[in-house]
Amino acid sequence: MRSAFDFAPYRRSTVGFDRLFDMLENNSVGQAQENYPPFDLIKLGDNDYRIELAVAGFKPDELDITAQQNVLVVTGRKKDEDEQKGNNYVYRGIATRSFERRFALADHIQVRGADMKDGLLSIELKREIPEAMKPKKINIGGSEREERSAIGGGSDQPASRQTVDAQAEAHNA
Fold first, then answer.
1. Which end of the chain has a smaller Cβ tally under 10 Å, C or N?
2. 79, 80, 82, 76: which is closest to 114 by C-alpha?
3. Is 56 exposed, middle or buried, given 0-12, 13-18 or 19+ CB atoms closer than 10 A?
4. pLDDT digits (tens, 9 = 90+) for 91-124
């Protein structure tokens, strides 16, 4: 289903934002499936984030984390070892269905690591802006052009003194 908003005028007048408009237009596609497993997104600092997914019932070897260009994919596939052991469930409330959860990552977001504790999968993220893209401070000074004031052509005297001297010269001439 497409968005009710038409992005065509913006697409014509911008360069390099195609991915953003595609995400906005397709944001409702597939969201009905993407509510499992639940997750939290935590901002730890200006450039540090953590995603915590509730993956109760999954072991670390049943989870797969893949970082592709601007996309983080977390996949879980439960092995059928419980049925092989002869467990007979009367009620099964812990969801163990397979899942694939996708997170769109902004530019320069790197996955730093993952850890699993108490049924929560924690994925550490960090924004690392390359040196070439960081703002640079440009110092002013040392230019070859000579600074001049409007009165006196760069004299060390204050402007008021220069004015008095100029008037005296004009009067004497």
1. C
2. 76
3. exposed
4. 888 877 899 999 988 888 899 999 999 999 999 9
Peptide bond into 37 cis (omega under 30): yes
As a whole number of angstroms, the distance between CA 126 and CA 108 comes to 8
Mean pLDDT of the chain: 78
What pLDDT shows up at residue 1? 47
- Region for residue 102 given its phi and psi (left: phi exceeds 0; alpha: psi -120 to 50; beta: otherwise): beta
- Say which amino acid occupies 127: R
Sheet of 71-76: strand order equals 63-68, 71-76, 99-104
Closest CA to 107 of 79, 140, 71: 71
Residue whose token pair is 């397709």: 26
